[in-house]
Amino acid sequence: MDKSVLLDCHERIRPYVHNTPVLTSRLINKIVGAEIYFKTENFQRAGAFKIRGATNAILQLSDEQRAKGVVTHSSGNFAQAVSLAAKSLGVTAHIVMPESAPQVKKNGVLEYGGIIHECESTLEARQATADRIAKETGAIFLHPSNDIDVIVGQGTATIELLFEQPDLNFLFCPIGGGGLIAGSALAAKYFGDNCKVVAGEPFEADDAYRSMLSGKIEGNETVATIADGLKTNLGDKNFPIIKELVSKIVRVKEDEIIAAMKLVWERMKIVIEPSSAVAVAALINESKTHPDTYKGKKIGVIISGGNVDLGRLPF
Predict the structure, then answer these.
(1) Are 169 and 297 in contact (CB under 8 A)?
(2) CB neighbours (10 Å) of residue 269?
(3) What is the DSSP string of 263-295?
(4) Residue 236 burial (CB < 10 Å; 0-12/13-18/19+)?
(5) 50-147 — its CATH code?
(6) Are 160 and 39 in contact (CB under 8 A)?
(7) Which residues sit opposite 70 in a β-bridge?
(8) Which of 50, 189, 196, 231 is catalytic?
(9) Which of 25, 39, 74, 75 is catalytic?
(10) Is the pLDDT of residue 237 over 90?
(11) Given strand 115-119, what is the order of strands in its sheet?
């Protein structure tokens, strides 16, 4: 892959997505001891970065494929993204969601015209249900994170950030299924100037951290984290990119995620979800444990989304 693939994707999806704002906070700059630039994908259509990858993947389908519809499985953000992208392009969207998915995200899917198929809250059940629907309807399966067209689409958020701040030294990003971090790392490689990519991950779902150590994709026995968007596993398409281009994975505790989320809500006056707060918590951790590495640097943070169930706030 070369940079033209990412540029072509950015141009392709431009009419369908927002170029979201880049915000700063003097207080968080002071806490970290660096210049922080937040790419606020919580202001994106459907409330998260995932509309980028969903739109690119659907636009890459043939007319015949689009006529049969698409199907995906997701706990929420990709579900809403595929529903909205499909609606914008006149395509039917079947969405497999675990019963435990936040109601706010189910409501979003329905508002965007997606057809929800609920299943048990396991990755196996999600995939089995999606496979059944694809077989019954002929719908094309879109993986939320382990699909090259999706990965490239997600990377366009970092492209926009680097167009605005081309001399970033570091980029912090949450890691769950691996689509956002893989796309972001590709964008940093082609459009950054030696910009190192650091991932944030909950201790309670640290499969990516363990995968980097072992060199093979690891699973999770439990996923007891508030960051519901980061409970999925890496895939064979994004893991090689992550192994090559992500310099470090920083694990954070649940109370650190909540504190980071609260900090951004209170000080920046913007709504971010726990998965986004993981990247902020990782940055704050790193600035404390390795202050000399980050002091005075320019650091980007991908705020991945802002879809929060206000009835289940942790503070």
Answers:
(1) yes
(2) 9
(3) HHHHHH-----HHHHHHHHHHHHHHHHSHHHHT
(4) exposed
(5) 3.40.50.1100
(6) yes
(7) 93, 140
(8) 50
(9) 75
(10) yes
(11) 115-119, 93-98, 70-73, 140-141
Ordered by start, the domain boundaries in the chain are 3-48+149-312, 50-147
Amino acid at 176: G
pTM over 0.70: yes
Fold of the CATH domain 3-48+149-312: Rossmann fold (3.40.50)
- Distance between alpha carbon 189 and the CA centroid of its chain, in Å? 18
pLDDT band at 39 (very low <50, low <70, confident <90, very high): very high
What span, in angstroms and rounded, lies between the C-alpha atoms of 66 and 237? Answer: 23
List, in order, residues 6 or more apart from 118 with CB less than 8 Å away.
96, 97, 98, 99
What angle separates helix 3-13 from helix 156-164, to the nearest 10 degrees? 100
231 catalytic per annotation: no
At residue 70, the 3 state secondary structure works out as strand
Q: Are 3-48+149-312 and 50-147 the same fold in CATH?
A: yes
Query: Is 50 an annotated catalytic residue?
Result: yes
